[in-house]
């Protein structure tokens, strides 16, 4: 029989955030969570998914969709690209194009061809000063992942959505570190070959 934890007021909400590390553990496998707070409904939905891999996919997909909607409503071109240069590259008169994405094989003239959550949570200091951006600390649903997977998510730049989710599912730091290094070296080689042509 499943027991319910219901978050009904702001005091419960503060306690909930403090205990989130415990609620995501296997100790709460048979607990069902519920709330009236729209703010934490996605977190509750994630905690109620008891299959670890399905929970990872839900958190990843929800986060990507949420950030896409947020930034499109805020300003579709938040990095202020003009002639393939972001605002920092134009102000500093840098020879590089495509902003932070210049080393990524998934960039295109229309933007990113994949949905990498790590990249979507990164903005340079100029953009963070100018706009309200999300990062790992204030994006609470990421706390539903264990610490290893949070660390992997913070380091998984320039990766396809499918590879990023697979990395989170594997969740072994040593293996993922080697995988990320090899993938980055291969991507760099592909990018250099592409630029020579």
Task: Describe the protein in words.
This protein has 10 helices and 4 strands. By secondary structure, it is mainly α. Strands 1-2 form a two-stranded parallel ribbon. A two-stranded antiparallel ribbon has the order 3-4. A hairpin with a 2-residue loop joins strand 3 (107-108) and strand 4.
Question: Which key phrases capture this entry?
Answer:
197 residues; 10 helices; two-stranded parallel ribbon; single chain; mainly alpha
Q: Considering DSSP H and I runs of 4 or more, what fraction of the residues is helical?
A: 40-55%
In quaternary terms, these chains amount to: single chain
Number of helices: 10
- The class by helix and strand makeup works out as mainly alpha
How many strand units?
4
Give average pLDDT, whole number: 86
Span from first to last CA? 63 Å
Rounded to the nearest angstrom, the radius of gyration is 19 Å
Described by strand count, sense and barrel closure, the largest sheet is: 2 strands, parallel
Q: What letter string, H or E per element, gives the SSE order? A: EHHEHHHEEHHHHH
The 3D shape can be described as: globular
Share in β-strands: 5-15%
Strand order of the largest sheet: 1-2
Low-confidence stretches: none
Task: List the topology elements.
Blueprint (H helix, E strand, L loop, with lengths): L2 E5 L2 H9 L1 H4 L7 E5 L5 H8 L3 H23 L12 H5 L15 E2 L2 E2 L4 H4 L4 H6 L16 H9 L5 H10 L2 H24 L1
Parallel strand pairs: 1-2
Antiparallel strand pairs: 3-4
Helix pairs in contact: 3-4, 8-9, 8-10
């Amino acid at each position: 029989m499943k027991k319910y934890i219901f978050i009904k007021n702001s005091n419960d909400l503060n306690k909930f955030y403090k205990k989130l590390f415990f609620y995501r553990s296997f100790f709460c496998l048979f607990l069902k969570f519920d709330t009236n707070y729209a703010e934490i409904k996605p977190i509750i939905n994630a905690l109620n998914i008891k299959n670890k891999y399905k929970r990872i996919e839900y958190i990843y997909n929800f986060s990507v969709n949420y950030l896409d909607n947020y930034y499109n409503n805020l300003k579709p071109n938040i990095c202020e690209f003009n002639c393939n240069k972001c605002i920092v590259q134009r102000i500093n008169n840098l020879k590089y194009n495509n902003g932070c994405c210049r080393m990524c094989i998934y960039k295109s003239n229309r933007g990113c061809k994949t949905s990498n959550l790590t990249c979507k949570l990164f903005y340079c200091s100029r953009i963070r000063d100018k706009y309200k951006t999300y990062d790992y600390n204030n994006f609470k649903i990421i706390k539903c992942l264990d610490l290893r997977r949070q660390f992997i998510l913070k380091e998984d730049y320039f990766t396809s959505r499918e590879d990023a989710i697979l990395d989170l599912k594997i969740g072994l730091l040593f293996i993922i570190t080697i995988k990320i290094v090899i993938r980055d070296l291969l991507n760099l080689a592909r990018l250099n070959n592409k630029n020579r042509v």
